Each structure stands twice: as C-alpha cells, then as structure tokens.
Amino acid sequence: MFSKRTRPSTPKESSHFLPHLVEFQQGYGGVVSEKIAAQHVQLQQEREISRASRQCVICPVLLLYGRCRTLTCQYRHLLCEVDKSVSSAVPKQGRIQFEVLKICTPTHFASRLLTLKKDESADWLKLPHKDQYENVQKLLKDYYSQPENIRKLREPCRQDKCAYKCSDGRFERVSITFLPSNSRDSDIRVKNLDSNTAIYHVKLHELVQLPEDLKGFPPLALDIRLVGCIPFNGEETWQSPDLQPVGEFLKEGDICEASICFSLSHTIFVEQLEVEQGSYRELLERNRLSRYDNEIGNCLRIMCNK
Ligand SMILES: [Zn+2]
C-alpha cells in the first residue's frame, strides 16, 4: 500500500498539475524535460479539442493579442468550423459603418452593421441588418402574443436557435452555446443574436421554441474588435475601470466607421476606426488608455486562418 504522501498521482491529477509544473519551470528559467514537454503538448491538444467540441468560450487574451501564453488558461484557444464559416451576411473586406450597441471593452463592441463600401471606388451600400432587426422584433412580438405559440423547448441541442423571454416581456432570439449533460436543472449558456452579443446563463424552462421562418434570419448583432490596441497600463486584458474614460468619446448608439481586416462568423476585426471626434486609436492613445502593437494584426490573422 502507498501512504497518502507517496502514492503516485492518478491520470486526472497528473493532467491537472502538468501545465502548472511546466509553467513553473519555464517561469524560473528551468529546463523542461523532453518527455514532460511532449506529454504537455499532447495534453494541451486533447484539452483544446475537447473545449472546441463543447464550444467553450474563446480566450479573451487570444482575441486581443492573437495568442495566449498562459499554459494554465482555462479558456478555448482553438477555433472550429462554427467560428470560421463566415456567412454572406458578414462582410470580409472593405469599409463599414455600424451602430454601437454595447461597449464591452475599449476595443470590443457589440454592433449592428449599417453600410458597406467594398473598396475605395465603390459607393456605400446599405446593409439589411437594421431593417431586418426591426422586422424580426415585430414578428417575434406578433408570434408570441398568441399564448399557444409559447411552447417550451423539448430537446435542446447546442447551436439551436430559440427564444428567451426578457425581463421587459420582450422575446430575444438566442443561440445555445453550452448545454450541460443534465439540462433539466442546470444552467444553459445562450448568446443573444439580435439586440447585442451578450452571453449569459438561463434555465431550460426559460427558453421557448422559435418558428422556422424566424430562425432563417442571420444574427443581427455582431462583435467588432479593434486590432492592435492593448491596455496602456500593462494589464493583460481590459479591466472594467477602463470603460469609464472611453465614454468621453464613444457611447452606445453612436455610428462609427472602420476598415475590415478579417472576419469570423460572429466577429469582424477592424482597423482605422473613426468616431465622431476623429481617430479612435488616437483618442485612446492621447488619453493614455491604450498603446498600439504592430505585431498583433499578424497574430490575429494567423489565429483566424489556422
Ligand atoms: Zn488563454
């Protein structure tokens, strides 16, 4: 019998401690043995595949820098087909004008696309998202005004589009992004499709079936992320106090303009963002909120194409 102190660790314990061990050794300039390094790489790959298959939340550091070096990070770093298959409703190049729906961080905004200029010589083209949003809101209101149409979701699946009744009585189209094995009692994670891109937890009984014709509309809110601007104070990610000074030159409801760098299914990465007072990047820098890192664009491009 092994005593408690000397028993070998179980595979589960080893897989928990291995990233901590490698991170610790690297952090202190130690040499990680080839065997440990190989085991660690394999473990990380298995974990990322598992996180991708469960559609875990993408790492915020990865979305800001195009890479995450924290070996013990619990977020997902592998993009999958669902993230990368960009529908025709999401432009991949050109200049866009959009309405800011929610300022999530100084460089991440839930937005609604308004117009697109495919290239310098092209005219501005009106995009359908705003009209579709108003149409969808009306259709939802009419449909659920009939009590017989409010039907519980029976067998939820990940990626299902359904509806959530908000506290103001309005119905919001949502997509299921995480489903626990026992979805009857546990929290289900959903993402708003139209009014913003918020992700939150609900109970199964709070979700109702969405008619097929309303599922057909693409998401009418998208994430827009400004490339290359990172926290000035050296923090790895944005902190909530960073939002307050941004309010001096950007507010929800503002119309902005930017150039598309590249797109994922629900996210457009942009540069040259113009707000009413001028260049947004210059405003961030002048207010000592962010600094620009030229390398990040490439890292993000590689991340999107991997
Ligand atoms: Zn990470």
UniProtKB/TrEMBL annotation:
Keyword Nucleotide-binding: yes
Reaction catalysis annotation: ATP + H2O = ADP + phosphate + H(+)
Enzyme Commission (EC) number: 3.6.4.13
GO biological process, one term: germ-line stem cell division
Enzyme type, top EC level: hydrolase
Keywords of the record: ATP-binding, Helicase, Hydrolase, Nucleotide-binding, Repeat
Protein name per Swiss-Prot or TrEMBL: RNA helicase
Organism encoding this protein: Drosophila ananassae (Fruit fly)
